[in-house]
Design the sequence.
């Protein structure tokens, strides 16, 4: 890795809520980081097209709105259309993928294809293990960027009411460290009334 890359810290908090029998959802969050570009607000809207027992399909549109201005007093927002597809293999395995674009609204900003591929394995009724590969490919300021990352997570569920996920992801190249972070710790708590 490039020794001149600085380590940064960012904290993200968010909330999501569903409607129409959980087919429609709104996702909102705030990120606070040491670097100005890590601080901003996230807003998204999604719809579950298929909710079958074996196949799931969702589409969404999100946006990233920086809190701080960039150089030249410009705000750099991103539009993020996504498609999520999942397929259950037997009772213990779930394959998931998320495909999306990161479209910068600033002049000369980046345009990226972001993809994630995951396998979830239920080790026990309340415990799951997830392995994920992430790839971000695109261009910014006329330069090709390729950013692969890999992650591992554990999920704990207590029925349908409470779900806790703990995981980590590592950027595998200098581009991945710049865009996704050298090492990211992820935690989420989902409460379903």
Sequence:
């Amino acid at each position: 890795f490039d020794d001149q890359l600085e380590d940064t810290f960012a904290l993200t908090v968010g909330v999501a809520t569903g409607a129409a029998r959980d087919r429609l959802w709104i996702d909102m969050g705030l990120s606070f980081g040491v670097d100005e570009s890590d601080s901003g607000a996230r807003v998204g809207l999604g719809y579950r097209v298929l909710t079958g027992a074996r196949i799931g399909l969702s589409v969404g549109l999100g946006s990233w709105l920086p809190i701080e201005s960039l150089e030249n007093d410009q705000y750099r927002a991103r539009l993020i259309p996504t498609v999520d597809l999942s397929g259950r293999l037997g009772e213990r395995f779930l394959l998931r993928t998320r495909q999306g674009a990161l479209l910068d609204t600033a002049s000369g900003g980046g345009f990226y294809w972001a993809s994630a591929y995951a396998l979830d394995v239920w080790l026990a009724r309340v415990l799951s293990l997830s392995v994920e590969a992430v790839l971000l490919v695109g261009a910014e300021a006329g330069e090709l960027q390729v950013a692969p990352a890999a992650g591992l997570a554990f999920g704990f569920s207590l029925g349908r009411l409470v779900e806790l996920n703990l995981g980590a992801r590592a950027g595998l190249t200098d581009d991945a460290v710049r865009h996704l972070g050298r090492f990211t710790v992820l935690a989420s708590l989902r409460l379903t009334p």
In short: Residues 1-6 have pLDDT under 50 and may be disordered. The radius of gyration is 17 Å.
